[in-house]
Amino acid sequence: MNIIGVIGAGVMGRGLAQDLAQHGHQVLLNDISEEILADAKSSIAQNLRAQKMLGQNPKITESTDTIIARITTSTELDFMGDAHFVVENVTEKWNIKKHIYPKLDTICHKDVVFAANTSAISITKVGSLTSRPDQVLGIHFMNPVPMKHTVELIKGYHTSEKSLDVARTFLGSFGKRSVLVNDAPGFVSNRVLMLTINEAAWLVQDGVASATDVDDVFVSCFGHTMGPLATGDLIGLDTILYSVEVLYEAFNDSKYRPCPLLKKMVDAGLHGCKNGEGFFKY
User: Fold this and answer.
1) Model-level pTM?
2) Which residues take part in binding NAD(+) (predicted)?
3) In terms of domains, do 136 and 47 share one?
4) N or C: which end of the chain has fewer CB within 10 A?
């Protein structure tokens, strides 16, 4: 499994491509435009240089150019035909994801396992789009991918033990350990985390406390490395909103109702770290 397909060159796709390439994998990185792909490679190069300069990742021993050379980009899905394992990272919208898997199913070799890097969408539903639902599973990577060493490995209704073992081998090849969870909306981490971030946004909207003070309670009182609102900014408030909406739709439970302030911020383009402003400025 040396050639890895990575679909989607957003925050998560870039982080995954970097992590794979710096561990020696050949990466096939796909997105919808050449501009996005060029920006992704530039961003990965900047991250590598910064991490080496700051000593954040001592395992990076090769030059940035050597690592970047392992990443091949294309706007066409067809080059996924060479992949030994595929991770899909597109935005958390079913209307976008559902068009990708039937195409992959015809392009990729019949023994290739597909992993959906999703925080809330049903793996069983994704598997139903293919002729190989036993080879479809979820891997929920944490952000930033190169710095986070544990993932959620999600078993869909039809996912086979063989496919889970393939995924574990894949993850182990670049230093990741996994926690196996069953397929349910939000899995473990986001069923709790998205609700927490959404509720923290309600606290700001209702004037209970400022964003700074909300996060201060979690950092100072509970020893969290980051508060929920800074975490939301890091993940991307647009991704948070999409995930909360998926949970609301899946459970039909009012506790997942998206906070109006969160929706307004996303509409205003305040998505967090990725574009410079969310609950905090960057």
Assistant:
1) 0.88
2) 8-13, 31, 92, 97, 119, 143, 274
3) yes
4) C
